[in-house]
Each structure stands twice: as C-alpha cells, then as structure tokens.
Amino acid sequence: MKPGKTSRRAFLSAGLILPVAGASARLGFGATTTGMLTPAEAPFEDAPTTVAKLPMRTLGRTGLKVNPLGFGCGYTPDPSIIERAVDTGINFFDTARAYLQGNSERTLAAGLGARRKQVVLATKSLASDKANALKDLDTSLRELKTDFVDVWFYHDKAEPAKITDGMLEAQQVAKQQGKVRFSGISFHSNQQQMLAWMAKAGLFDVAMVAYNFSMDATMDQALEIAAKAGIGIVDMKTMAGGFRFQKPSSPLYSKLKQDGVHVSALRWALSRPNVHTTVPGICDMDQLDDAILAASQAISTTDEKTLAAHLELIKPLYCRMCNQCEGACQKGLPVADVLRYLTYADGYRQFAMGRESFQKLPAEHRAVRCGDCAECTVQCPHGVKVSDRMARAQELFA
Ligand code: SF4
Ligand code: SF4
Q: The whole model's pTM is what?
C-alpha cells in the first residue's frame, strides 16, 4: 500500500529540503539542483528500501532482531496503516490491553493478518496481581489472534514495589505455557530508578521507556547501564508530547508544519546508541510517512537546531516526567502523572485516554482544584507552568 499524493504534497509544500549529497548517497535517488525533492523523487515509493536499510538491532538479552523503527499502535484506528508498515519492513509492533478501550489489539491483529509471525509482537497488562495478569494475557492472545506474544509488559509500573511476587509468578507461568517469550516493564516516570533496578534484579528482559530530545544526560547513563546488563530498550514518547493538533493561531502551529519537527524528533531517537527500537505512535498514513522519512537520513545539525527551537516553545507545556518535583505539591498530587494525562489530550488528541487515566486517580486527588491554592509549591526547573497546566487537566477531566 502506498501513501496518497496528499501526504507527499504535504512534505513538499512544507519546504522539505534535504542535503543533496546526503539524500542521494543514502537513499539512492536523485535530487534537484536546489535540493528540493520532486514528487517523483520523494522516498515514499521506496519505503521498504528506506526502512530495510536501517541496520537491525538486537533487543538486549532476548536476542530478537528488531528494526530500530518500530510502530506504536496505541492510537492507530485503522488496520491498513499497520498493513503498510509491515510492507515497509517495520517488524516491532507494540500495543496494550488498555489501548483504544480494548480495541487496539484487535486492530493490530487485523493489520498483521497472516504475517503475525514475521514480526515481533508486544502487548501489555495493567494488572497488579497474578490472576488478573493471566486473565489479561489470555484476552490479549485471543484479541491478537495468536498463540504467543514475543514481549509481554507490565504496563506503567514506575516503582519496583508495584511488581508483586504474584506478578513475577504470572510471568513465569506464561513463559512455561509458551504464551510469552520475554517479559518486560513499561514506565514513564521514576525511570532512572526503574532501569537501575531492572539491571540489578535480572527479572525482566525488556524495558519500555519514555525517552526523547527533551531529556538530559542522566537518562542516557541510566539507559547505558541497563543496556549493558542485557535489558532490551524500547523507546516510546519519542515526539515529546506531539502537539500536532495546534490551532493555527498557536506559535507551535507554524513550527510544526514548516520545520518537520516530528521527523527530527524521531531521527534523534533513532540515533541513540542504547535504544534498540522505537515505537512512535502512528495513527494515519501521513504519520507513517513521517516515520519513514525520519528513517531515510541520519540526524543532522539542522534537525538538532529544529529540536532546540521546538523545545523552547513547548517548555511551558510539556512535562518531561523527570520527577524532580515529586512530593512538592502541597495537596499531594502526582504532578507528572496528571500532566502526562493532559499530554494525551493536548499533544496526541487522545482525550478519552487522558480522561480515563485521570478518573483512576484517588478521589481526594480528583477533587483538588489548583485555582484554590494561593500559591503553587511546585516549581518546575524545566519551565512547565505547573499550576496552569494542572488546572487545565482538572477542567478537562475532573
Ligand atoms: S513538572 Fe517539571 S519537574 Fe515536574 S516532572 Fe514535569 S518536567 Fe519534571
Ligand atoms: S497549584 Fe496545584 S499543583 Fe500547585 S501546589 Fe496547589 S494543588 Fe499542587
């Protein structure tokens, strides 16, 4: 399946200019004397070549060979997008029991069809005990129309204490029954502690982490330690909040349209030495084109400048989940979690996912209104306007 003309046009009208020598040497297609690619020269017809040219990486101790460009199915509404992704050579697909109100696994199964065994398939369970974890797994296998998953993650467990003995037993049982090949944990916050714990404990094979251009070198070091210990590293949240759906009046709007920020952001993730594969959330053919375009060329100084400028713009909005403000809210709110739920709505246009997550907070947290605080005790060193953003989350979700 090939992308429509509109997506190619979008790139071209966005003024996409690739360095002539770099583009032609890497992809084997010509460029105009101005460096502007014409439709006939655009890389989308060569998508399988583009993705397949990325050297495969080994997913830590699992030994699984994965393309560094993977596919996050969390918001993918249409199997045909997945079908085309498989055509291109993408071979790592990540979903979860909880995504799309339980419909994501079914969508992924429809997109993979008979090619399920050509790919590395990962799903997740939010369960926190053995019985519910195993029940979730059986549901996942049924929905995914498969006998086994390659990687089974515990979903959003940001503290070692959240991994109970029963959950470890469930992983063992699932492996013994042949339903799961490798085990993993996904988390968005407290990441450095979780990676260090995983590296030492040796109980899990793969970590799914939130890692993008907004993060500092301490995260690089934590990933290096984990990767050296044999943990496979899957990178999510590569777009630092996305923010694709801004109003034209927003200063972000023109930046996102003109600068190819999402392409640059994914190039950054693909360039990281301790990332084995990435799972950018892809929900339409244009976003798949962005991912393929990102894979077509190594990160450049232009990409880096674009990302630096973009980071300045998203500073007041985007919480990078660094946890430096943990415990600072006088009302005990889990600030990083609430801001992540807001990002689902504001950044990824996944309002339902944001609200559902917010509604799972304890009642005393849901009842708090930041507007009632005389002064916010949370000072974000990265420039997030915490009380404004929290108030917006409460207005949208409570
Ligand atoms: S609000 Fe700021 S300090 Fe708190 S987790 Fe987010 S980025 Fe870190
Ligand atoms: S304004 Fe909100 S985030 Fe800040 S201290 Fe008050 S309740 Fe906590």
A: 0.84
Within the chain, where are the H helices?
Answer: 5-13, 20-27, 47-52, 79-88, 104-112, 130-144, 165-176, 191-201, 217-228, 251-259, 261-270, 285-295, 301-314, 335-346, 351-359, 363-366, 386-397
Give the DSSP per-residue string, 227-279.
HHTT-EEEEE-TTTT------TTSHHHHHHHHH-HHHHHHHHHHT-TT--EE-
Where does ligand 1 bind, in terms of residues with CB under 6 Å?
Answer: 319-325, 335-336, 339, 380-382, 384, 386
Alpha-carbon span 188 to 56, nearest angstrom: 25
Q: Are residues 221 and 359 in the same domain?
A: no
Report whether 92 contacts 280 (CB < 8 A): no
- pLDDT tens digit sequence for 326-349: 999 999 999 999 999 999 898 888
Give domain status of residue 330, yes or no: no
Q: Are residues 166 and 242 in the same domain?
A: yes
Q: How many domains does the chain have?
A: 2
Q: For residue 389, what are the domain limits?
A: 335-397
User: Which ligand is closest in space to the CA of residue 319?
Assistant: 1
Does any domain span residue 286?
A: yes
**Are 248 and 133 in the same domain?**
yes
59-71 pLDDT tens trace: 999 999 999 999 9
| CB-defined site of ligand 2, < 6 Å | 329-331, 333, 335, 368, 370, 373, 376-378, 386-387, 390
